[in-house]
Amino acid sequence: MSSPASLPNGESLVGIIDVDGLRSRLAAIAEADSAGGASNTARSEVLALVRDVIRDGRATIEEMLFEDGSGSLCARRLARLQDAVIHAIHDYALRFVFNAANLSAGERMTVLAVGGYGRGTLAPGSDIDLLFLLPYKQSALGEQVVEYLLYLLWDLGFKVGHASRTVDECIKLARADFTIRTAILERWLIAGDEELLAELDTRFEAEVVAGTSEAFIAAKLEERSARHAKTGNTRYLVEPNIKEGKGGLRDLNTLFWIAKYHYRVNTTEALVEAGVFSRREAKLFAKAEDFLWAVRCHMHFATGKAEERLSFDLQPEIAKRLGYNAHPGLKDVERFMKHYFLIAKDVGDLTRIFCAALEEQHAKDAPGIRGFVRTLRARAKKIPGTLDFHIDNNRINVSRATVFRDDPVNLIRIFRLAALHELEYHPDALKLIRRSLRLVDAELRDNPEANSLFIDVLTDRKDPELHLRRMNEAGVLGRFIPDFGRIVAMMQFNMYHHYTVDEHLLRSISTLSRIEHGELVEEVPLSSGFMPLQKDRVPLYLALLLHDIAKGRPVDHSIAGAEIARELCPRFGLDERETDLVAWLVEDHLVMSMTAQQRDLTDRKTILDFAERVRTLDRLKLLTILTVCDIRAVGPGVWNGWKGQLIRTLYMETEPTLTGGFTQSSRSERIGQARERLAERLGAWPEAERTGYLDLHYPNYFLTAPLDDQLRHAEFIRESRDAGALATQTRTDRFREVTEIMVLAPDHPRLLSLIAGACAGTGANIADAQIFTMSDGRALDVMLLNREFESDEDEIRRAERICANIGKLLQGREMPASLLANRRPPRSTELFAVKPRVSVDNTLSNQLTVIEVEGLDRPGLLSDVTGAISDLNLDIRSAHISTYGEKVVDVFYVTDLIGTKITSETRIERIEVRLKRVFESPEGEMSSPVVMSSQRAFGIPHR
């Protein structure tokens, strides 16, 4: 057991804390005190002294972290500093406060660090977990010492977890509770009686640990699975939890708890000696642990609290602290996060290796008939057509250690066989694959059989994502396709993408497979209908795998990706037509989503331009499927019914253009069918009322709004007959993580601007806006707001405040600027760099001028932009709002006040300058006098 004044690696605490000096100064406080150190005055002096010692010691430790970069050492230094302080306070309390230098047998007590602290490591914001170990029951003196120590630690600002127990109680509780058992498993003597600790050591080993490894392992692995599910069940979230997330520190802790419990070891070196890890894997464990501790300690130091989520706000700061620099195509923060995800992947590899060793040992140790039955079940089964692999408990395994060296094609063949026979992978096989990666060379990449086998895995009819994921985790995919290797673990520093690039690509493959299996018919009926008829499924799967493969380069990733596709496709056995198809899909993979979300689909020019880009009906169908898969794989809640309806509408409007006018139904027929479907859903309405309502909407409404939304709109408008000029309605959508506000009011050029201003007044961020004008002069505006609160009740209250603000603005009782002045600051987007861009285009529509603005999103932006457009005497005919995390792309179809296009170059220049100023000088935009002077133009009475 190390002294509190030293570190496990032999490094001294000298330079961090003067232990002897601290004790001397504490003694001096007691000697100067009339009560011998027991007075409140002495306590205050002790508190001030210890606070200064901790502050100075932590500052020194932070400097040392910057100097040597060792996270593990930093965590140990912090723990030893804590040990020294607690030890000094404990001795001060015994000697001076309670004058009890000589303790009786019943007054003995041991102060133990347990849990994470018991492992000898602490982060700056970690809880201090203490166990006060007693001989049989709490004495009066022991209770007083514990109380003095705890209250002092609390006053110092520490969060202390503590328990006072006898050895008997520790054993009893550890038997019954795995959490307590785990905490006691990691124990460290801070101060007090060593004999009590020795007794606990002996009894814990004999009465708790012995013979219970299987139950403990099962409990820890189940706990890990539950924790992963809670934090997102993927190690590739772009804002990971460094402690609790998959691939984080807690996973390494779990491995070590199990190792300590099962193998009776205390170091990773001992795991090498036990044959669990190779020396390389032990070094990988130490490297991963050191990196994760460095990140965690820097996070705590930077924030001054126990922050475990590596959020966008923190990532640039931590990247700077760790010394990362930008490279062409990758920011410094993106390089840092790529390193983080590679480390998280290493943690996953170590977990699988460790579990394989446990399983093998467990099989060997199984006694009697049970072990015989287990052996029979695990007996190798042959795989038809190969002697290199066999089935081991429904998992594919290698038949010999030289299987990949003998034939490197086996590094691809194993994944094809696993897919063909629906097998998982034995950890031993994965371990051997990782140790054979050097065999994936240029010769293997050019091998026709290897490439054919890879295409079979990619287009597997059952579960291609599983086998591609295993191939990626084992390192084969990135070496077999080096361009893919460049985007493994790569994150994009923005608020739109939820996963790393490789994770996104694998999830898009999963979505395509689910569509092909008919699992998403209700959500994506159009794509589901196309897929069974696809003769080009191989190019489609390959295009999905490659569509973002050129991310992180200083050139357009779509164009660069197409060039990569042209190089790879012949290698994979595709002919010239298929190669051109894949390259086109990769190059234009964003065109359909951008057109659907950012263009007016009722404008004939939009459809003609899109059709010219697509050219054939087959390519349109393939692009539709690819677009759906791409959007759905971005992250939870990104895909929704509104986007699905827009894509369906774009397809249905483009199809007749590509087929020379032939389609299953003409535009007028589709409008008629949509009206009939809504009429059928409104069957309970009186016929005259139903007909009158259907006539309120212009034709494009029926083609762009989903039927379920149309029904809700109808009920809302019907219920609003007696509500006066303004009516609002709110609802939450937990699945899409948005809150919807519907507004029905007299149409006016500034209506959208003021509604957006009311949203901005509460700090609400508009994710989407749907604007429908009606034939009676009213407008139905539907705003989708990013969710802010966990509780639906809180979300509804926020939405109702927004609706009240809308009423105040429309009645002229409130100014937009005053609403913004009182808003609560939202999550900052200042970390992100989005260069403002404004374009005014007269080629995208025959009758209207199209203004497209792109820039950094913020509350009030939409209101400012639409207000500026009105200030420029422009009439907004349709608006298309798209939010991609921190970036907004808003498109407005406008005319001048007499209904004509904007053709004057001078006026176009003035529009661009004015709208850029909205992004560059946002302060004060909403206080425009024009806005103020038009408040009462809506005809909404002040009630």
UniProtKB/TrEMBL annotation:
Gene3D superfamilies: 3.30.70.260, Beta Polymerase, domain 2, cca-adding enzyme, domain 2. Keywords: Hydrolase, Magnesium, Multifunctional enzyme, Nucleotidyltransferase, Repeat, Transferase. The keyword Repeat applies. Has four distinct domains: an N-terminal nucleotidyltransferase (NT) domain responsible for UTase activity, a central HD domain that encodes UR activity, and two C-terminal ACT domains that seem to have a role in glutamine sensing. It comes from Aurantimonas manganoxydans (strain ATCC BAA-1229 / DSM 21871 / SI85-9A1). The keyword Membrane does not apply. Residues 501-617 form the HD domain. Its EC number is 2.7.7.59, 3.1.4.-. This is Bifunctional uridylyltransferase/uridylyl-removing enzyme. Its cofactor is Mg(2+). The gene is glnD. Belongs to the GlnD family. Modifies, by uridylylation and deuridylylation, the PII regulatory proteins (GlnB and homologs), in response to the nitrogen status of the cell that GlnD senses through the glutamine level. Under low glutamine levels, catalyzes the conversion of the PII proteins and UTP to PII-UMP and PPi, while under higher glutamine levels, GlnD hydrolyzes PII-UMP to PII and UMP (deuridylylation). Thus, controls uridylylation state and activity of the PII proteins, and plays an important role in the regulation of nitrogen metabolism.
